[in-house]
Design a protein that fits this description.
This protein is mainly α and 183 residues long. It has one domain. It has 8 helices and no strands. Helix 3 crosses helix 4 and helix 7 runs antiparallel to helix 8. It is globular. It comes from Acetobacter oeni. This is TetR family transcriptional regulator.
Length: 183
Amino acid sequence: MPAIARNADLDIGEVRTRYPFKTSILLLLGRLADRAALVDDGSLSTPRETLFDLLMRRFDVFQQYREGVLTVLRSLPFDPPLAVILGLATMDSMNWIAAAAGIETSGLQGALRIQGVTAIWTYTLRAWEKDESEDLGTTMAVLEQGLDRAERMGLFPTTSQPALDSPADSSGTGGETDAGFVE
């Protein structure tokens, strides 16, 4: 970190105070990406459309720091503690993103939905790594593919499709209790 501070013409003491670890800088980038994604622009869409917009906003921030982000991604296999920390931070980010998109995130089914959103993000991130176009067309196409799969799996319930956490027996013949459990 001292070499980075010197190269950037920054006071080493100030850098140490603000960013005690390299990980601090990476976590800050994640928060910046979340802040950009979670700006309420007043547009009301379906959860799927909103999720697409929120995730692409995160990529827009990552794109500004592309070389650094790519360097970090390439180093993750060789730095397991960093991979764990960034993995947990990503899960937290995807929780916020999913909730902002109108996807229910509470309970066991909510945890599964967060896992689904995280899988979509990771799948798309792999495409973003290789997408060198300015418009990120390949990244957007891969994100659409991931959202299509998630939709088929019930991540975005519609009125004709039961939600992931609907009771298994909705016919009323299964003797449900107040908590929705079958006796």
